[in-house]
Amino acid sequence: MNAPAYNFAYLDEQTKRMIRRAILKAIAIPGYQVPFASREMPMPYGWGTGGVQVTAAILGRDDVLKVIDQGSDDTTNAISIRKFFAKTAGVATTTSTADATVIQTRHRIPEAALHTGQVLVYQVPIPEPLRFLEPRETETRRMHALGEYGLMHVKLYEDIARFGHIATSYAYPVKVNARYVMDPSPTPKFDNPKMDNCAALQLFGAGREKRIYAIPPHTSVVSLDFEDHPFSRYRHDAPCALCGAGDSYLDEIVTDDKGSRMFVCSDTDYCEGRQAQGHRGSESAAPHKERAHG
Amino acid sequence: MTAMIDISEARKSFVMHLQGGVELPVVCGVSFHVGPGECVVLSGPSGAGKSSILKMIFGNYRCDSGRIGIRHQGAVIDLATAEPRQVLSVRRSTIGYVSQFLRAVPRVATVDVVAEPLIANGVARAEARDRAGRLLRGLNIPERLWSLPPSTFSGGEQQRVNIARGFISDLPILLLDEPTASLDAANRAVVVELVEQKKRQGVAMVAIVHDDEIRQEIADRIVDVTSFAAAA
Amino acid sequence: MAEREAQDNDQPLLMAENLGKSYGGLMACRDVSFALYPGEVLAVVGESGSGKSTLLQLLSAQLAPSAGRVSYRMRDGVMRDLAKLGEAERRFLFRTDWGYVHQDPAMGLRMAVSAGANVGERLMAVGWNHYGKIRDSASSWLERVEIDTDRIDDAPRTYSGGMRQRLQIARNLVTEPRLVFMDEPTGGLDVSVQARLLDLMRNLVSELGLAAIVVTHDLAVARLLSHRVMVMKGGYVIETGLTDQVLDDPHEPYTQLLVSSILPA
User: Is A240 a catalytic residue?
Assistant: First the structure.
């Protein structure tokens, strides 16, 4: 059976031009949501079509692609998307953050600091940070245009009134380049500081909502807060059970039905890298050792 | 002009459009003046237009023609042609009106009803209520009633609250419409004394009084309103 | 406050000159001219279809006039034609120097957001960034409009109609506006609730030295709240003057009809 012949990275060249134009505009106006003609992709909405379109538009033959989902290279979605690009673009793929030139991510930013020349592509479900407070698109566009962000603080105020602290733990709104308020996608607020003054280019794609936005390298990204309730990162108070890291974002894993749990680095590449260097945590047992050679 | 009030050839009639446009003339050719410290009493039978003249001086009724000169803040203005803002200004600082029936805002405590004209003119609330209390006491309204709205009071009590409200501020002109109606002898005497006090302070007053005795006591001059009767 | 009065009282705050609005051949209102001074309350009275609501929209720059203009004296003392303001300026004015009280409080509030946030929103919109101070300010305003401060964290969805309306007023007054537009502020409320609300409005207006334009079909509201009144019919202002003048000595046939239709207390 003959395999179908794909254009490089699946999308036709005209579509890539359109997306690149949108990306350029987004880079020129950091944090501003640029509408684009999102195409039907071979996966349904809600499965990362926005991120896939952005990646498809920017990939070149010499790029090295890494795909992560919630920090992990080996979940179903990460593997599917990586295989998709391997098949349609024939580019090299990797699980190493340092070696990748393009990293597509769902809902996490890698622990390892990114460097110049890398592009981080985020998958975004709802691009509009004000959406849940102001359902009218006409009104939210006006608010962005006029810089009227009082409503954003209303959301934070409500949290403090209700919970005593700003309870938003992911998709925490930020102000980009001191102008636009942006939803960083459902990344944990722990990751927000990594967006600030980042050496890599950060691109955000929302396929269903048909929006692209961007943060150019070395742009200021400030999390919104109140003077008397300043932004704070949340992290479980434990080292990684596998590699002992005390500064990475942790996933909580329930290990039995008696309430035992362990905390493990969410970023699998980071964790494995540390273990390869000899760092150990309290649970470095046989099952994990197998994967280290994978 | 040294007079506080100088009315000249004022005329008023009502056109009742709901009754086919019939014209009801009220008064015509009204002319008189009132100087500081004087009390002019308007006399005449009921329906002759006494209350109407009072209301014209206050700017409540608009006159069809003529002039209502008022000495306001050192200058003379014609209330008949004045801008609404000016009329408001005159009412705030020059002319006070004690109507025949208390028309207070419901639900406001008596002491606040009386204090309001002072507060509106910038007097501190505590001091205004203090002065209101003293006036009310002088008019025999007991303290236990001060925090109640006057709508439940008897006619006489309401009238005394009305008088307190009218007399509390230091306006140079006062218009009094039946100030002693519904009052007993003791309270009538209190009101007469209040009027005398105002006269001593140089306040110009125009009053409508039916009681002959009271009229004798307070009037410096009597103006017979029937001479201004409009031709029917 | 006293100095501000001394400075501004001689200059009109809002001026309408030959204002008119038409929709195709239909003239919703025409030839309206007046000047409103600081601290004055003007009632616009008329029945349905008189053009009073259209007039309010024109005066608050929510509708563009077909004829004439509306000018407003900004905080810096300069008289500006509202039609020439940029959208950003107009929206800013709406949030700071002006208030707008809707007949239906749900239109003027965020129903799903707490009362404190509703009152605090305008403050946050002008840059207040301290949670504690915002909350204190919201709390003191709730007290002023006689809402129990324990309810500061409740959403207006849980409030009664009268409470919602009072909350709407607090939300509008928190930035100390100089001019408040009110569209039938007591419409739809129970009589006793109306009474309480009117008292509150009367006191606030006089305490804060607000200028206000109140559209109402209820003459009692006009008598209680306003210094001046304009009677509208068929899009025209048919009579205007001091409230007590117009209501006690009505000249126009329509005004006489309106006044005589009120049942005496």
Answer: yes
